């Protein structure tokens, strides 16, 4: 996966002149840590989990990136995700480098108390390398505000001081930011709206299908419907639902939440159990002839195996790495434009940045102020990427990488001493 992720860099270096040393620096992670995390299970048995933290690059600031709980988490995946975080923070112009963490675990098999012990164990394992000026985690797949709250608490207990800025995505009462929960979906919608504005779209005629009805996908679908888009299909890991006249997103979410009453911290209900909508398979959702296909689940969803079947005209990548490089080429040949992850899903880290700023200042903003500031950044950076794609005659993905790598190269050049040797 990391080798595939790095292939994106090569296409960028064809378009811009960057010092060889920048390429060297950006093709390897700066630090990678693996730790065993012992957890006392409710049965009394001791189970050891493997945890990861990769700090890919910290030239532009302390590293930033989420923690993922998933059975498939491994060093290769965490490294790829940390690389994307590095590029994403640079694309968004944030004063952060990139990192990522994870634990190889199926969190749905753990009780709430086991999950809490695991989360506190993660902080004990990696506390030496975390901190508000070093490396700042956040939620990712199957981690959430509750888990961030446990982690912040463990850190403050260990160091006997309050340092809320050491982690973001916290619950509101523990120093979280207003607007963080919906930020990724909201930011993605701002990017899509800007794209649509430049293409002269009338949003009421634009049909949208959303793969992934989790935190990012749900908020995107809810806000897109509110903006006037026709959201005709959504899916989760168990299947998809479709309605040509448009889905009632809030209603589907309410249904999921009702089912959730029985669960601990995760949504156990599936959107596809909702009545009155046509059921589809996950593959069928991906192949719908819609205007915008939104990928908000996991990586590697469109590959060379299914890229030829895609009929949408535009793909919006909310998930990280949902389209592989070979699939990118097939989509481009078929005239399908991909608005890339490193731009589209930056809303989450942008509001995490706002949370960090508010924690450091001890002064908190209202949701309206958060969204106004988020919109401004998404608008400016989206237009910068769209303009670069036109001037370099390249894909939006390459343009986004050009935008981020230019900022990274500037920082690497200004920090290093190679200029003395080269001149
Ligand atoms: P989540 O766990 O809340 O939701 C993931 C959703 O995807 C769930 O509904 C799950 O059922 C569904 N899913 C899994 N496999 C699927 C499949 N094969 N087909 C259809 N649906 C499937 O996670 P999230 O926080 O919404 O994150 C989703 C993606 O967005 C991830 O790639 C994540 O890295 C990325 N992302 C999230 C944020 C954020 O703030 N939440 C920020 C940046 C990027």
Entry summary:
45% of the residues lie in helices and 17% in strands. The protein is of the alpha/beta class and 423 residues long. Strands 9-8-7-6-10-11-12 form a 7-stranded mixed beta sheet. The chain has a 5-stranded mixed beta sheet with strand order 1-2-4-3-5.
Task: Name some characteristics of this structure.
alpha/beta; Rossmann fold; seven-stranded mixed sheet; 45% helix
Record the SSE blueprint.
Blueprint: H1 2-13, H2 20-26, E1 31-40, E2 46-57, E3 63-70, H3 75-91, E4 97-104, H4 112-126, E5 135-139, H5 145-159, H6 183-198, E6 207-211, H7 215-227, E7 230-236, E8 239-242, H8 249-260, E9 278-280, H9 282-286, E10 292-295, E11 314-317, H10 325-333, E12 337-339, H11 341-344, H12 346-361, H13 367-392, H14 396-415, H15 418-422
Helix pairs in contact: 1-3, 1-14, 3-14, 4-5, 6-7, 6-12, 6-13, 12-13, 13-14
Nicotinamide-adenine-dinucleotide (NAD) binds next to helix 7 and strand 7.
């Amino acid at each position: 996966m990391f080798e595939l992720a790095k292939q994106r860099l090569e296409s960028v270096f064809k378009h811009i002149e960057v010092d060889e040393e920048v390429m060297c620096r950006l093709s390897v992670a700066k630090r990678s840590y693996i730790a065993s995390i012992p957890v006392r299970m409710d049965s009394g048995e001791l189970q050891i989990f493997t945890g990861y933290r990769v700090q890919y690059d910290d030239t532009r600031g302390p590293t930033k990136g989420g923690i993922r709980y998933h059975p498939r988490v491994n060093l290769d995946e965490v490294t790829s995700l940390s690389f994307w975080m590095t590029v994403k923070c640079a694309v968004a112009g944030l004063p952060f480098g990139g990192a990522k963490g994870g634990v190889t675990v199926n969190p749905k098999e753990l009780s709430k108390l086991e999950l809490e012990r695991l989360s506190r164990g993660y902080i004990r394992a990696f506390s030496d390398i975390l901190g508000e000026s070093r490396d700042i985690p956040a939620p990712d797949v199957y981690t959430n505000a509750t888990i961030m709250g446990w982690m912040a608490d463990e850190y403050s207990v260990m160091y006997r001081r309050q340092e809320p800025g050491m982690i973001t995505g916290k619950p509101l009462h523990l120093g979280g930011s207003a607007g963080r929960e919906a930020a990724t979906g909201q930011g993605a919608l701002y990017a899509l709206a800007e794209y649509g504005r430049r293409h002269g779209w009338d949003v009421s005629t634009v049909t949208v299908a959303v793969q992934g009805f989790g935190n990012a996908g749900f908020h995107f679908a809810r806000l897109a419907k509110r903006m006037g888009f026709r959201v005709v299909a959504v899916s989760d890991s168990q299947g998809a639902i479709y309605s040509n006249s448009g889905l009632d997103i809030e209603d589907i979410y309410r249904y999921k939440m009702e089912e959730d009453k029985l669960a601990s911290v995760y949504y156990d209900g599936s959107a596809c159990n909702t009545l009155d909508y046509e059921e589809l398979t996950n593959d069928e959702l991906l192949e719908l002839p819609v205007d915008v296909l939104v990928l908000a689940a996991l990586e590697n969803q469109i590959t060379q195996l299914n890229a030829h079947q895609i009929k949408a005209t535009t793909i919006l990548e909310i998930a990280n790495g949902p389209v592989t490089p070979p699939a990118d080429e097939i989509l481009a040949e078929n005239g399908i434009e991909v608005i890339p992850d490193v731009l589209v899903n930056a809303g989450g880290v942008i509001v995490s940045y706002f949370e960090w700023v508010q924690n450091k200042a001890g002064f908190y903003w209202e949701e309206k102020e958060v969204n106004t500031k988020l919109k401004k950044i998404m608008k400016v950076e989206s237009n910068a990427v769209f303009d670069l794609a036109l001037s370099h005659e390249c894909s939006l993905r390459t343009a986004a990488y050009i935008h981020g790598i230019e900022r990274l190269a500037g920082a690497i050049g200004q920090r290093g001493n190679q200029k003395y040797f080269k001149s």
